[in-house]
Specification:
1 helix, five-stranded mixed sheet, 3% helix, single chain
Length: 405
């Protein structure tokens, strides 16, 4: 699916010593050819073999002026539209500076791309009341068979929910092409099962809410070209990213319920075990994933042998409010924007995402020409009485730059 080109261009530098004594010129492997042909929405990774003190990649802008497109050593190049593009590379070096021009022809793909998910690479939910049910676990299933079930549920135009469980549980997926970052536009959409409450015991509530179980989105580029999501990840910074209530660098460890565990029922009949699955948070706050009467199966992913599961990332503030003050009516209020399963799918832009929101681990904005992998994980850690834990669910994703066939 991805193509990394490593064709060596040999450049000779000559030097002359005093007395006109010549020496063998050093040979430099630049590692980049003069011309390339690629399909649109398919990345070309250019890697200069010649080391330098710095790298500057430029391309003509709309006014015809040279515009810097990257200062990284490796250039990740992808375009949505067919055409011919000229790129210049300047390798900064005090002794042997290098300049090189690359011409790239971008072609229409032979087979039309799909707007929908092609591959689920990993499905690893945290414990939760819908785990082992969405998708259904059967005796003999392992991580690979559950991955396939998740893929069958949410790929293409399929619209079957999968649950990510409590905080941190995740799924990683990709399309059959690179999702291109189109400036000023939403790039992709992810469907969940959020809905607004038809009524609210709190008449003064002004925020939209009901069942909002926000999931955080991460994106990655296939820089090494191996079609595996093992390159750096970047968070899409939603509305709560800079909130003081959001924890960054948070982690939580879940501990499998030991044999012989004696349940501790809740104050209401709907909670059958308030001490079901222990979790320990890096913020020093420990708690339990509670079990309820509506979901009696094992909440621990049965295909995993781990006795401890650890997840990490950003953690959003709890969004659930017991508006009844009696444990009977919880409202999970939606955050303004930037999260999965946060607003109803029909709300359009509120379920859509912009690659321009990407930030690195330090919270600094990064520019990504396109992305090859998407990761979604449950972003809150909260129990809501008879409603159980808050768990992000997804059922489909689509590239907003691909016309539906």
């Amino acid at each position: 699916m991805k193509h990394i080109y490593n064709i060596y261009l040999t450049m000779a530098f000559t030097s002359t010593l005093a007395g006109c004594q010549s020496v063998e010129p050093p040979m430099v492997n630049l590692g980049i050819d003069d011309t390339y042909s690629i399909y649109r929405m398919s990345p070309l990774i250019l890697h200069p073999e010649y080391p330098g003190e710095g790298y500057v990649w430029t391309m003509k802008d709309c006014a015809g002026a040279d515009s810097v497109i990257s200062r990284e050593r490796d250039l990740y190049f992808v375009r949505k539209d067919v055409g011919e593009y000229t790129i210049k590379l300047q390798i900064i070096d005090r002794d042997n500076p290098v300049e090189h021009q690359v011409n790239i022809k971008v072609w229409e793909e032979d087979v039309a791309y799909s707007a929908y998910i092609s591959t689920v690479h990993e499905y690893r939910p945290a414990p939760g009341q819908f785990v082992n049910e969405l998708p259904k676990y059967e005796d003999g299933d392992n991580a690979e068979s559950m991955r396939r079930k998740a893929e069958e549920s949410i790929s293409g135009k399929n619209d079957v929910m999968i649950s990510l469980g409590n905080y941190g549980g995740y799924v990683i997926f990709s399309f059959d092409h690179t999702v291109v970052n189109v400036p000023g536009k939403y790039d992709f959409k992810i469907h969940g099962n959020a809905f607004y409450a038809s009524s609210n015991p709190n008449p003064s509530a002004t925020d939209a809410g009901g069942s909002s179980e926000p999931g955080i989105v991460m994106v990655s580029q296939d820089i090494n070209g191996n079609s595996i999501p093992d390159d750096p990840w970047y968070e899409l910074a939603g509305s709560e990213y800079h909130s003081p209530a959001t924890l960054h660098g948070y982690s939580v460890s879940y501990h499998r319920t030991p044999q012989g565990h004696i349940p501790t029922p809740g104050l209401t009949a709907s909670i059958t075990d308030t001490s079901y699955i222990l979790y320990k948070g890096s913020d020093g706050v420990d708690g339990y994933v509670e079990k309820n009467t509506f979901h009696t199966q094992d909440y621990w992913p049965k295909w995993l042998n781990d006795d401890i599961m650890t997840f990490s990332g950003s953690r959003l503030a709890p969004n659930a409010v017991d508006e009844s003050h009696q444990g009977s009516y919880y409202v999970l209020y939606a955050y303004p924007w930037g999260y999965v399963d946060n607003h109803p799918n029909e709300k359009g832009d509120l379920s859509s995402f912009n690659i321009e929101w990407a930030v690195d681990a330090s919270g600094m904005r990064v520019h990504l020409e396109g992305i090859d992998f998407i990761k979604v994980y449950t972003g809150v850690n909260q129990q809501c009485g008879w409603l159980g834990e808050t768990s992000t669910e997804i059922c489909r994703a689509e590239d907003l730059h691909i016309l539906e066939q």
